[in-house]
Protein: LacI family DNA-binding transcriptional regulator
Organism: Amedibacillus hominis
Amino acid sequence: MSEKITIKEIACRAQTSKTTVSFYLNGRTDKMSEETRQRIAKVIEETNYRPSVAARLLNAKETKLIGVIIGDITNSFANQIVKGIDDIAREKRYQLIVGNSNYILENEEDYVNRMLAMGVDGFIVQPSSKFDQLVDKIKNEGKEVVFIDSQVSMDREKWVKTNNYEAVLEASEMLMEKGYDEYIMITADPSVLSTRKERATGFIDALQLKGKQCITHVVDGDVESEALTEMLNKELKFGTRTLIFVVNCFLLPRVYVALKNYRNLMPHTIGLIGFDNTEWSNFSSPTVTTIVQPAYDEGHQAAKILIDSLEGKHEEAPNQILKCNVNWCESTN
């Protein structure tokens, strides 16, 4: 029966209009009497009516859908971002469509096209550095976009990010006081994301302010721990105090595994610091110092900015920088 019954039949049985039933199905019941709501609800329950989502989207001026494009959905940082977005979206009666781009422009473009075809009202995107090529396409469709974690423009777009540069600079300055002799930075390609550039620059600038330099290794995103072990074996010298800074969340556990035979030297000879990963770094032995981003808050604020703009309220600041904190642990203390 649920496949055949229509809104017209629901309206007839509930003794109301099709428009009123449509308002009920879309959650717009604030001006509807309790009696009318109960009649419609009773008929829907009795008939097991399920509205056609596709038909509703085709006819709706707004779909209450938000397209979310994440760079790498596999890490806990991204999970927390999506959770923050979803909590606000649910509160405001929006639903999410989530895609994982792997920071590849072709994937981002494919998701943008498909989500536009689905009729999303707006986008929240963790972009690659090349996403700026897609911004005009989105805006030409009359859609809003908020960037999260990284951004393609500081002055023209809406975005939420963390103080990556300042957080790395300050933490590095504090660590240099411990008297390390050498510094190693391990990062995936910094040109792919603005956050990687900010973190790498923060580390380099902190060292240069003290007249020091670092050895930088740019590695592939799919590098294995074995390759990192071989690289570190060549760099680490007996008796030389060395600080290792891992720029990327996803690389830190691989570097930690690569340092298996050196962990007994932490923190007195070898120091290790990275980003996030608190789901394991607080329980490892030794525990690992990380700069922690407020990922949930980033998602939360990005959703508030987007929905605020979609609803024409313009009460939220369109650009927001949230503060990281350092979780000092045994790998540096």
The chain has a mean pLDDT of 93. The first strand starts at residue 65 and ends at 70. The chain has 13 helices and twelve strands. The domain at 7-51 is CATH 1.10.260.40 (434 Repressor (Amino-terminal Domain)).
